[in-house]
Here is the input.
Amino acid sequence: MVYVSTARFEIRNEGNATIVAFAGPLTATSLAPIWARAREAAEKTVGQLTIDTSGATRIDTSGAVLLLTLERDHPDGVVWRGVAEQPKELLARLRPALQDDTRAPQFSARYTGSRTSAWQDFLNRIAFFGQIVLAIIGLRERLRFLRGSDFFRITERAGAQAVPLVVMLGFLIGMILAFQSIIPMRQFGASIYVAALVSLALFRELGPLMAGVILAGRTGSAFAAELGTMVVNEEIAALTTMGIDAETMLVIPRIAAAMMVMPALAVGIDVTGLLGMAVVMIILGIPPLAILDQVRRATDPQDVLLGLFKAVVFGAAIGIIGCRAGLAAGTGSRAVGEAATSAVVGGIVATIVLDGLFAVITYRLGL
Amino acid sequence: MNMNDAIIVDGAGQAFGDEVIFQNVSFYVRTGEIFVILGASGCGKSTLLKQMIGLSPPAFGRIMVAGHDVVTEVDSVRRVIGVMFQSGALLGSMTLLENIMLPLMMFTDLPSDARADIARVKLALVGLVDAQHLRPSEISGGMVKRAAIARALALDPPILLLDEPSAGLDPVTGAGLDKLILDLRGALGCTFVVVTHELASVFTIADRCVMLDRSARGMISIGAPESMKRDSNPVVRAFFNRELPTSGGPS
Ligand SMILES: Nc1ncnc2c1ncn2[C@@H]1O[C@H](COP(=O)(O)OP(=O)(O)OP(=O)(O)O)[C@@H](O)[C@H]1O
Ligand SMILES: [Mg+2]
Here is the structure.
């Protein structure tokens, strides 16, 4: 269906009749440059319009739809000229189909929803990672497979809808940490250092870690379930046979969304965790200003930035693992559940392993 | 075999594990022909279609579509082929109209009202304009099948593979589908490979058909439907004669 030549048309006047003459292939892949102009030209014509297709080399149903649209938009009457036998049949077949003239809706996609050895499985994982990297490198040529609406929808679900959970968990974690550590510290009269301890732990470790656990549980599993369902329903196979790149269309927006929401989730945990800690400490009689002062002295922006960077990396890992678990789903409805489980487990394990790596690296670098 | 063959299947076979599903399947499909694949459930019809689009590479033999090898030149093959999967395989997250607009959006630069008009016409061809804003989960199984046919038609591919298009349809809708297939062949010269169990449909649309058999692990007959009624193989004769008296025979 790839044609080198494109469709053309010209407007001629013969006496007081206006003629639109088409030439070249009138097919789905060749019509884009002339569609709007041809409709405009036909609409401007007053009186009778003659549609001449004698120069057309091929007319498929898309071409026929264009011609019929011109006819529909021109109530003064249309005369057909040079229509070969086959297109004539096609036009007759399609004419009743075009009567219904409801306008195009917004494109608002909304997602609702073989045994291998361990070594082979590991290799597959690496290969999937490579495919994603390649998909990102080759993105410029495949931009058309990306749909912005997808990205925003996924971001909203992974980020905005997680806020209540983040607020609750962050606050509780802050409270629990403060309460647990203040008991022994009080014996040494060092209660105030709890603020230093908890804030440092939140910024560097617990913020990104908790955000990772939340993302793996809410979003990694959702990625796996959505893509797994698509595999089971042969939707991915259908996309592939249509020549649509499932990696670009489905995986990249998800990974990008996961990477984007993670720092926000981590900050949410940080802030609400500090609040929870402050509540406990204030109840136990430590003045708010002293707490604030202690937090400021114990931490610096570098700690926060390190935490945010870790969050982005965790987000990428969780996104990749979730998508790959979904796309690797087997057949049958059990496969979807298994994919979701392995996405959550894999996401949490990866988060903690990466966190360990970060600990080693930051220690080496003295950060 | 010549250059006019849309599809050449040369000794194709498939095995899952040690289990050979079929082997030594060879036939060709001429351009503009309506070719039907028959056979009892589980004999490998869907598997054979998947081989033709490079989704599951043939374990043995070789398949060429429009002069391209389905394994080594799979992209070229997919550009000329439209597929309707047995399950429909519509994207559950989109409405029917969006499902049909998707390939138009991906592969043409048509303005969005043009895409919608084209997609609506395809839905009208299968009688589904009224359901255009519904999602696949909100329509019946037969409607899913028809919508999947409309999607396969979206870009007017010269070759169409339909896996049991009329399964689950009432006889009138099924007959309408047969007429659509014949009309498209007449108007656009499309080549069709159709898997079906409906004998009436076979006699209406098929130029030639091939019959696969699970126990024979391959094809047991090929030819025009008329000639198959008198096939030397009793399995083929049984299949073709069983329903003949009630279905009214050849049209
Ligand atoms: N991925 C797979 N793994 C293992 N076996 C498979 C796989 N896909 C198909 N099979 C086997 O291949 C055989 C043929 O399957 P196929 O789906 O091609 O049958 P079919 O002829 O289309 O049947 P139906 O008419 O019921 O659709 C079946 O016996 C099935 O068990
Ligand atoms: Mg099948």
Remarks:
- Residues B 45-46, 86, 163 surround magnesium ion (ligand 2) (CB under 6 Å).
